[in-house]
Structure formats: C-alpha cells, structure tokens
Specification:
The protein is α/β, with parallel strands linked by helices. It is built from 17 helices and 38 strands. The chain has four domains: 25 residues; 175 residues, Glycosyltransferase; 160 residues, Glycosyltransferase (Alpha/alpha barrel), CATH 1.50.10; 260 residues, Single-stranded right-handed beta-helix, Pectin lyase-like (Pectate Lyase C-like, 3 Solenoid), CATH 2.160.20. The chain is 29% helix and 20% strand. It is elongated, with a radius of gyration of 31 Å. Pfam families: Pec_lyase, Pectinesterase. Belongs to the pectinesterase family.
Length: 673
C-alpha cells in the first residue's frame, strides 16, 4: 500500500512539473502578437523570453527597423542566425506595416522593464531613430522606409500603420511609463515635433466632400495629400476602418485644438451618416477553421457595420476584385478576395461609443474664462489659458494701451507664430530659455513660392511695434537645406532678451526701418545668419558660426545712420570652423560694427568680404573698435573697412543707436523692459 502511495505521489509530482514547464513552453504555439500582448510581466524574465529576445535583436537591421510578418518566437538554426547577421546592413523590406517595428519595440521595452539589459534599450532607441528618420516633411509616414517603389511611398493609414507610430510617440512624449525606456532630451524634442507634424498631416489629409470634411482614405499621395490607390482592389475611397482608429487617436489628445475638435466632429457625423444597419455578415468555415464563404444577409437586429471602401463623391460602398473593377455588392467578386479580405468593419462603433463623454469633456474646457486679458498663460498640458501661442496672440486686444503679457510654460511648441501688426505692445515670455521652445521647419524649397520664398519661412514673425521676446528658444529646425529663418522682425522698438535663436542659413532676419535690441542672446547659424535692413544693437550676445561662411549680411538703408552694432559680444564657432567673415553687404549701403567683442580664431584676418561688389567697398561702413581675441587682426583687415578711434566710437552708445530722446533725460523704450 505504501509503495502504491509513493508511486502516485511521484506521478503527481512529474505531472505538476510538466504542467509548470508547459506554462512557458506553450508560448511557441502562440502568435507573435499574442506573445507580446498577452504574456504577464513575469514571463519577460524567463529564459524563454530571453531566447526570443535574441531573435528579435537578430532580425533588427542596422537602420533600426524590422521586416514584417515574422514569427519571432520560432527557434532559429545556426545557419538561419548567420543568414540574419549577414542581412544586418540590408535596408530591404523594412516597414511599419502589419505592426512591424512597433510590436518589436514594445517587446523590447517589456524585456528591458524586467531585465534592465542595455542591449534591449539600445535596440529600442535605434528603432525610435528609424521611425523619426522615416517621417516625411509633411508629417506622414510611408509604408516602407527606405522608400520602396510603388504605392508603398504613399502616406499610409492602412492597417493603422501611421496611427501605431503616433500612439507610440504619444506615450513616450507624455511620459506615461507605458514604455520602460526613456530617450534623451534631444530625442524627446524630436518626438514632440514628429508627433505634432503627424497630427498636422492627419488634419490636412482629411477629405472634403463638396466642401464638407468627412474621413480619410487608407493611403494618401505623399505630395498632393489626396486619396491614393494601393493594390488593385484598394482604390481611392473613404475608409470606414482606418478612419476610426485615426479619430480614436485624435480623441486621446489632451486639450485638443479647434482644428482637432472639428476633425473629430466631422468624422463622427460621417460615421453616423454612412453606417449600415439591418445587414449581417455570415461566414462559413471548413474543418480547419478557414473561411470558405462570406454572405451578407438581412437581419434587423444586426449591429451597425461600415464598408471598408466608400465612394469619394457620394459615400456609396463598393467592392473590388484583383481586376480593379468596382462592384456594387460583395457577392459579385470572386471567392478568393471575398473571403480573404475584411470588407466590412465595426471599428467606428468604438468612436461613436466614446464620443459623448469626449464631447462633454471638450464642452467643459470651452467654458473656462480668461481671468485677466492682459496676463495670460500658454501651456501644452492645458493648465493655462491657451494651449498654443498663436491662439493667445489671436485673442489678444488689438493696439492695446496696456502691455499684454503672454507667459509661455516650458514645452516644445511646434507652430508658426505671427505677431500681427495690430498686436503691438505685446510680450512673449518663456518659463525658461532652455525649455520653452518655439520650433518649425519651413525652408526655401519647401515653401516653393519663387525667388522670395525665404521671407515665408520664419518660425516666429514679428510685424508689430513695441514687442518684447524674453526667455525663449526660437528655432528653425529644417536643417542645412538652404534659407530657413527662425526669427524675423520687421517692426520698430522690438527687444529680444535672453533668447536662443537657432538655425543655419538666415537664422535671424532683422529688417525694416525700425530699431531692434538683442541682449544676452545666443544666435547661431551658417551663412548670413544675421541679415536685413534694421538698426539693431546686439549687447552681450554669443554669435556662433556652424560653418565656414559669413556672419552678417546687412542691407542697411542708405538714409540710416546705423546698421548692426555688436557690443561686448562673444564670437564663437564649432571646432571645425576656421574661415568666417564678419560680414558681407547684401545691399551696398550695409553698416556693421563690432565693439569690445571677443573674436574667435575662426574669424579670417581680412575680416570682411565685398560679395563680389567692388562698388560696395565705397558705400558700405564696416568697422571695429577695441575688439580682442585670436580673430582680431586690425592691421590685416580689408583696406576699405575701418578701425574706429575713441571719438568715433563714442557715438555707438545704446541711447544714440536706439534711442528716441537722444538729447533728453526721458526714459527710452528699451529701459522699460
């Protein structure tokens, strides 16, 4: 009896151990997607998870992305591993289609959360770099990157490809801890911009039917932004599937702009208008669980459904076989496409279910009143009076008698900002220079409006008088792609205090007939990065060259006594920069003077360039006084430039250059800052 009892205990023990091991070994019988989403956190500590993670790392290409439709959990032979290593440098078939790249990044994040292995973090961040690099300038993403010829270059909403990317970026930028890996600050900045550009692309691609916003196509042309064709049976149309997930993304955005609200409400109206009731899809399966037939039958109790494809002109549902010919009913197409494709979807019902609470929340936020219209706050998190800078400016009093102060909380504001001529006496003040960032990325070729395209590129344009900008970073993030203005000022009595002005060519356009004051600023660029016709005084600024080229390109008006005056400034450069001119004349009456400034060794001994305009040597006024540093070579300067004497230098005071009451004790405009 004892022997039987011991035998039974042994059998039960073996069964328990076997069952315990099977809890993890069963993972190989799951789909790759289920492994990522259904396994509990503790599983990601197991050896089996680590083995699969090695596969994920092997499949990742050096560019950062992954191919699609790979069951990562399947064991690899040694020959297969060597083959994948050989493919590391290949960029073919790398994509975000069918969840590729996004799902691998999520898996790596979960691995890192449980193991803190640096290789998981590095691979995740490389994937993030891939996603950022793949984005078009217009904010969209192609299906494959590097680009694959054909319809794959279209902006791809199909199978939620772009929405998946934007949801990932949203989770990271909002610091929700959904992803365990935290990028560096410079990458977070790129993520914020990429997300905002992506949302902007969504808003621009929403289709207008007879002037009324509707929804989206599964793919849009990357240039025209219009609905585009993909496979033969995926014709330009309005999508009842992909559009739903787009709207769910838009509704997840905190403190949405009026444009986002309008996009959501328009899409909801369309979903309500085109929903199909009283029709049910019936599927027939074979013994292996494969669909062998689909039919649509009347059923008054059936839940609402939406057609995958609807006509752009009138919303009529249509169906299509591989011959590309539209059919009116599902029954008219062959069994292969009829049974192998999702022609109807219920996803829009999620939108309709969520919409009432979302609408209530938005309505409440609209009822908040501005307490003090002369002192308002902009905050991206919705805890201010406005969420965008332009909203605050547009709602400010025109030509106010009192100064209007717009306090901008730390954040990355991806927007083109314009202070209109009627918004005089206005102040934009950031919470901190380093973290209050206004950025955009327009440039000459992107604007493409002819020879004057440069003047349409500014991130921030000031047309009003009596404006103060303080504690801000103002950036043109287009990169080294030609003319791209960060800040343009064309008005009078404008002060820019403790700001970073970032860009490359043409960073600061200081122009017009007025007077401008730049104090304690950092200004960087490559070519002619301070240019224009204004009378501008730069005090205690750092002027930083990123390339061998020219700092200033003044176009001073003939009648102006002063042009650009730099006093007590530090003239610096990147390490590899060795040949920089202080200035060249954009127009022949250019005036530029450097006083008591420290010139780095990158400044050429000749100092000034005539821009191949010999006549400008007689009309320009380029001068220096008591500069210092390795770049100060007064005896080797261009013969047509000047070294001021003490008496000549006396007139370059702040009051004399910018003042209105030069011979009076009255308080000057810049003394009220």
């Amino acid at each position: 009896m004892k022997l039987i009892e011991n035998t039974l205990k042994f059998i039960f023990l073996i069964i328990a151990l076997t069952f315990s091991e099977s809890l993890f070994s069963q993972v190989h019988n799951q789909s790759w997607k289920n492994i990522i989403h259904q396994n509990k956190d503790d599983w990601f500590k197991t050896n089996e998870a680590k083995e699969i993670a090695e596969n994920v790392l092997l499949y990742q290409r050096e560019i950062g992305g992954w191919p699609k439709n790979i069951q990562m959990q399947n064991p690899l032979s040694e020959a297969e591993k060597q083959h994948l290593k050989a493919l590391k440098s290949s960029t073919k078939e790398i994509t975000t289609d069918n969840g590729a790249t996004i799902q691998e990044m999520l898996f790596l994040s979960k691995m890192y959360a449980q193991n803190k292995d640096k290789k998981y973090e590095n691979a995740f961040l490389k994937g993030l770099d891939y996603l950022l690099a793949a984005q078009y300038e217009n904010g969209g993403w192609p299906q494959f990157y590097p680009l694959k010829k054909g319809y794959y270059t279209h902006i791809t909403y199909n199978d939620d490809s772009m929405v998946n990317i934007l949801n990932l970026l949203k989770e990271i930028k909002n610091n929700t801890n959904f992803y365990a890996i935290k990028p560096a600050d410079d990458v977070l900045k790129k993520i914020e911009i990429a997300f905002q550009k992506g949302i902007d692309c969504i808003l621009k691609t929403q289709y207008k039917q007879n002037g009324i916003l509707t929804v989206w196509c599964a793919q849009h042309d990357e240039n025209t932004l219009l609905p585009a064709k993909a496979r033969a049976y995926e014709l330009p149309s309005l999508s009842g599937a992909e559009s739903a997930e787009i709207v769910m993304l838009l509704m997840s955005i905190e403190n949405p702009s009026k444009e986002i609200v309008n996009a959501v409400e328009s899409a909801v109206s369309w979903f309500e208008k085109v929903k199909i009731t009283g029709l049910k899809e019936v599927k027939t399966y074979n013994e292996k669980g494969r669909i062998i037939d689909k039919k649509m039958i009347p059923d008054e109790n059936a839940p609402a459904i939406w057609a995958r494809f609807s006509e752009l002109e009138d919303n009529t549902p249509f169906f299509c076989d591989r011959d590309g010919i539209k059919k009116a009913t599902l029954a008219e197409i062959g069994s292969e496409r009829r049974n192998g494709y999702a022609w109807y979807k219920t996803t829009p019902q999620k939108v309709l279910n969520k919409y009432p609470k979302w609408k209530e929340k938005i309505s409440k936020s609209k009822t908040v009143k501005i307490k003090d219209e002369y002192n308002v706050t902009v905050s991206k998190n919705g805890k201010g009076d406005y969420t965008t800078i332009q909203q605050a400016i547009n709602n400010s009093k025109s030509f106010p008698y009192k100064r209007v102060t717009i306090f901008i909380k730390d954040g990355i504001y991806y927007e083109k900002v314009k202070i209109h001529e009627w918004n005089s006496n206005i102040t934009l003040v950031g919470e901190s220079k380093e973290k209050t960032i206004i950025t955009f990325d327009d440039y000459f070729d992107k604007i493409n409006l002819g020879r004057n395209s440069t003047f349409f590129t500014p991130t921030l344009l000031v047309e009003a008088n009596n404006v103060l900008l303080k504690n801000l970073t103002i950036e043109n993030a287009a990169g080294e792609v030609g003319q791209a203005v960060a800040l343009a000022v064309s008005s009078d009595e404008v002060a820019v205090i403790n700001c970073n002005l970032l860009g490359n060519q043409d960073t600061l356009y200081a122009s017009g007939k007025g007077k401008q004051y730049y104090k304690d600023c950092y200004i960087e660029g490559t070519t002619d990065f301070i240019f224009g016709s204004a009378t501008a005084f730069f005090e205690n600024c750092q002027i930083h060259s990123k390339k061998d080229s020219y700092i200033t390109a003044a176009s001073t008006l003939k009648e102006s006594e002063f042009g650009y005056v730099f006093k007590d400034c530090k003239i610096t450069s990147d390490e590899n920069v060795t040949k920089v001119y202080l200035g060249r004349p954009w127009r022949i009456y250019a005036k530029t003077v450097f006083i008591n400034s420290n010139l780095g060794k990158h400044i050429l001994a000749v100092g000034w360039h005539n821009w191949s305009k010999p006549e400008a040597e007689k009309t320009t006024f380029y001068a220096e006084f008591k500069n210092l540093g390795d770049g100060f070579h007064p005896n080797e300067r261009a013969k047509w430039s000047h070294q001021l004497n003490d008496d000549e230098a006396k007139k370059y005071t702040l009051k004399n250059v910018l003042g209105t009451f030069k011979n009076s004790s009255k308080k000057e405009w810049y003394e009220n800052l």
